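Quick note —
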Amino acid sequence: MIKRWLLGLVVAIVAAYVVYGVARATGEEIVVAAGGGEPVAVPPVAIAFATIVGAVGALLVALLLRRVAKPRQTFLIVAVVVLVLSFIQPFTATDTVAAGIWLCVMHVAVAVPLMYFLGQALPVTKKDRAPSVTA
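Predicted structure written out below.
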């Protein structure tokens, strides 16, 4: 599972930087005001850090869900719910709607590879020893 997680993490970081680059190329500076403080531009290192933190959380959830009846399905449901909930924060922390949308796009770009690679590492059912090739 760790190898798949690492692969998902690398793809997620690359995807986040691609979204960041496209946002910057369109002229959008992603500016956030964390905790009601002064607005600051999101530094590139913060993107990698936030991606790693989210990926560690996803890994912990995946490890915990190995014991449920349908680990893969349960993980994907939890991941989608968390992803949808993650769309709230960008609009409360950014100055513009465009910046909020770019952050939401970045959340999707990070979540999809992590969901794919960790989902594939989980068995379809608790009784399965290895993930199904076809699922």
